Amino acid sequence: MSQEPKIISIGRLVPYKSYNLNLIELMPDLISQGFKFQFEIYGEGAYSTLLEEKVQSLGLGEYVKFKGLIEYSQISKSFDDADFFYRLWYNIVRG
Which residues pair with 66 in a beta bridge? Predict the structure, then answer.
């Protein structure tokens, strides 16, 4: 079991939710500065292939794991096993 902190993300992997890609692109700099962590991504969608290719091209397979869909009943356990939850939160207000 890794002693590195674990960050998880849960949600559909679609282009307008680019927060996973943003963190993946930052990871080489963070790792080179000594900030090593595991990043587990739960979900599926149109962005899956792009994210997986980015992880491979950056050599991050040791740090990033794609977990696929997660059963609703298992979400709580995923939170319990993680140190941090990563997601972009925003609200759209219509007037």
Answer: 41
Alpha-carbon distance of 48 to 11, in angstroms, equals: 11
Q: What is the largest CA-CA distance in the chain?
A: 50
For residue 89, the model assigns a pLDDT of 58
Asked if the model's pLDDT at residue 87 lies above 90, the reply is: no
The whole-angstrom separation of Cα 86 and Cα 23 is: 9
Q: Is 55 exposed, middle or buried (0-12, 13-18, 19+ CB in 10 A)?
A: buried
Query: What pTM was computed for the model?
Result: 0.83
Q: What is the 3-state secondary structure (H, E, C) of the chain?
A: CCCCCEEEEECCCCCCCCHHHHHHHHHHHHHHCCCCCEEEEECCCCCHHHHHHHHHHCCCCCCEEEEECCCHHHHHHHHHHCCEECCCCCCCCCC
d(CA 87, CA 67): 16
> Encoding tokens for residue 51?
């994210």
